[in-house]
Here is the input.
Amino acid sequence: GAVVSQHPSWVICKSGTSVKIECRSLDFQATTMFWYRQFPKQSLMLMATSNEGSKATYEQGVEKDKFLINHASLTLSTLTVTSAHPEDSSFYICSVRGGGASYEQFFGPGTRLTVL
Amino acid sequence: GDSVTQMEGPVTLSEEAFLTINCTYTATGYPSLFWYVQYPGEGLQLLLKATKADDKGSNKGFEATYRKETTSFHLEKGSVQVSDSAVYFCALRGGSQGNLIFGKGTKLSVKP
Here is the structure.
C-alpha cells in the first residue's frame, strides 16, 4: 500500500499562534486527501476532504477559516490550524485515496498538537 | 446518520487466547465494513474488509463476517500473539463520498 508521512509528528505551540501540518504521499498519487481529528478514547472524526487542485469540503461544525487545508499536489496536503487555542489540542491524522469512493484509503501516523 | 459502535477497551489477553471485539453499525443501505489496526507509532492499516452481507473478511488469522440481520461485524482471532497488541478500529464506508466512519477503537494488549 501507499506510504503516507506526516510532519511534524508532534508539536507544542502557544495559544494564538498558527501551526502547519504536512501530509505527504511518498509513493502514491493521492487524488483525494482526508483530514481527521481524534480525541482521547474517541473515534476519528472526519474534518475535511480535498481533491487535488480544488477547495476542501469541510464537515459540518468544522471552521474552514480556522483549519486551512491546501491540497497543492497529488503528493502533498497541508493543514494549518490558525490562532490555535487549547481546545484545538488533539491528534490530527491525514489519509489519502487514489481513485473513487471504492478505493482503499491509506493513513499517516498522525500529528499530536498541544496548545498551551 | 451512519454510525459504528465497538466494544470499549482496553482488552488484555494472554498469548494464545481467543479474541473477540464486537462491532455493530447503523447505516442506510448496504455499506462496506472494515477493520483497521493501528500499531504503536504507526498509521492505521487495513486489516480486513467485507463488502456485502455474509461476506467474511480474513487476514493474519483475524476474521469478521458481515451480518446484515444483526448489523454486526465482530472481529475474531483464535490465538492471539504479543505482536497483535494494537488499537483496532471498526469502520463503515457509506454515502456518496465514500467517507469512512469509525468506531472509537479498542486497545488490545497481549501478555506473554
In short: The CA atoms of residues 16 and 83 of chain A lie 4 Å apart. The mean pLDDT of chain A is 90. Chain A touches chain B at residues 1, 4, 34, 41-44, 46, 49, 57, 93, 95, 100-102, 104-110 (CB under 8 Å). Chain A is about 0% helix and 55% strand.
